[in-house]
Amino acid sequence: MIKSIIKGLSMMDKLLIIVLILSIAVLSLAKFGNGVIKSVMVYKDNYLVGEYPLTMDREIIIDEHNTVRIKNNKVSMIHTDCPDKRCVKQGTTSFMPIICLPNKVHVKIQTNGDRESHLILH
Questions:
Q1: Fewest 10 Å CB contacts: which of 12, 70, 91, 118?
Q2: Residue 81 — φ and ψ, nearest 5°?
Q3: Mind spelling out the 3-state secondary structure of the chain?
Q4: 73 and 17 belong to one structural domain
Q5: In terms of C-beta density within 10 A (0-12 exposed, 13-18 middle, 19 or more buried), how is residue 79 classed?
Q6: Is residue 55 part of a domain?
Q7: Number of separate domains in the chain
Q8: Both 42 and 21 in a single domain?
């Protein structure tokens, strides 16, 4: 039955079906199968405090001075006791680092292929 359907299709119909199947496959790989795993790296005084998956929602308290929230594959600083609160005002991100200079906290999003050194705060 399938062979008779295929025989009834013109060459252009067959080409269109192949292009559609390939397009769906490429889009699926781009969305779901790219192999990129993102982690949230939290540093305090240039030391790694913890590494957390970006896919798991949670709140991380850092020395009672800062609170980092991971939610919906994004990260934000939701609390700090520093005077200017620029890190809180930065909002949520899925790729930019968050830095609280007064408390020497640095939050970085790292992919599985990213092996660059982290920012040093003095």
A1: 12
A2: -100, 10
A3: CHHHHHHHCCHHHHHHHHHHHHHHHHHHHHHCCCCCCEEEEEEECCEEEEEEECCCCEEEEECCCEEEEEECCEEEEEEECCCCCHHHHCCCECCCCEEECCCCEEEEEEECCCCCCCCCCC
A4: no
A5: middle
A6: yes
A7: 2
A8: no
Q: Which residues form the domain of 25?
A: 2-31
The answer to whether the beta carbons of residues 92 and 57 sit under 8 Å apart is: no
Tokens of 18: 């192949």
Q: pLDDT tens for residues 8-38? A: 778 888 788 888 888 887 766 655 555 567 8
**77 and 47 fall within a common domain:** yes
Residues 40/58, Cβ–Cβ less than 8 Å: no
Mention every residue, 6+ apart, whose C-beta is less than 8 A from residue 82: 65, 100, 101, 102, 103
Q: Which residue has the tokens 């779901």?
A: 32
Name which of 31, 48, 32 is nearest 40 in CA terms. 48
pTM of the model: 0.64
